[in-house]
Fold this sequence. Notes:
The protein is an alpha/beta fold. The chain has a domain at 3-132: NAD(P)-binding Rossmann-like Domain (Rossmann fold, 3-Layer(aba) Sandwich). The chain is 43% helix and 15% strand. It is built from 16 helices and eleven strands. The chain has helices at residues 12-23, 37-47, 71-81, 97-105, 115-121, 135-144, 166-169, 174-177, 187-195, 197-210, 246-254, 267-270, 289-294, 299-314, 320-333, 342-356; strands spanning 3-7, 27-32, 51-54, 68-70, 86-89, 109-112, 130-132, 149-156, 215-219, 225-231, 236-240. The strands form two sheets. It has a seven-stranded parallel beta sheet with strand order 4-3-2-1-5-6-7, with helices on both faces. It has a four-stranded mixed beta sheet with strand order 9-8-10-11, with helices on one face. Helix 4 links the parallel strand 5 and strand 6. Helix 1 (12-23) crosses helix 11 (246-254) and helix 14 packs parallel to helix 16 (342-356). It is globular and about 55 Å long.
Amino acid sequence: MSSIVLLGSTGSIGVNTLIVAKRYNLTIEALVAGRSIDLLNKQIVEFKPKYVAIANESDRAKVNHPHVFCGDSGIVELLEHTSSHTVVNALVGYTGLAPTLKAIELGRKVALANKESLVVAGEFIDMSKIVPIDSEHFGLWYLMNERPFSKLYVTASGGAFRDWELKDMQTATFSQALKHPNWSMGNKITIDSATMTNKLFELLEAKWLFNTSNIDAVIEKKSIIHALAEFKDGSTTAHFAGVDMKLPISFALRGKVEEEILPPVDLLKIGSIEFLPITAERYPIWEIKEHILKNPHLGVVVNAANEEAIKKFEKDKCDFFGMGKMVLDAYKKFEDVKAKNIAEIIEIDKEVRNYVQ
């Protein structure tokens, strides 16, 4: 029976991964969580992992398990103790990079939901070891099917403020930015959705995964079309599916799926579908879209600046558009940096964070 290591077990991707693992009788060799210790303890009872890791040493005593690793270094150490062929990386943020690199170094397949790994260090990651768990990239992969394409598209919901007046967005609060119109996700990804940074990251991921810079994004408010592929013959196909991560997760864990995971899309219920442009006045980060697709090594700058800007917005130290200003300012300041290896990526990440702070 095959086993997996699950990083980020208490987030929405992690919870869905456990549902899929149960469906297919996969053993869970290790669970890694952040601060949701109560949920982790329930998962330990149900899935009986050999090893567990958590974010903070101070929570160790609350975890009902004999083998608990702590902190970022603890996750890497846990990976060295495991033998599962597949590592699911659903950690949020820059924290997810080191485990991705470690898993690849150990010869594992990485089912990747951690966007930042590819955004920050795509150049230094062996794509043959990566299977994306993301409805957009899964949709692209599903559509392409080895046919020659000319352009790829992902769709965006538009985030919490897509229908707001621009002047009202100036005074939008952190809690308002967390009210996603279509679904419930963690704080960081919901803020990134409101600023469209999430979509910029997905374009960068697609650039590395599919080896092309001919990628764009459009808003599709119903979030029923996740991706479109435009082929060299002039035709375009779209991937329709319900908003449910169990489909990409099932493919990532099993390679193929032959039974119904989601109820089929009801076309009459959907009615009309509309595509809208993403504009830089509402989403300032979009200003750098073309430039960063040509200079994807600058993903490390955008990611570090963005993570620090979100912290400031959460603490009321800047307004909603202030986040974009900080990121664009850092992007301009560091536009000449280019890492030659992972050690330099780590250095650049620190420098950018210090600059933004």
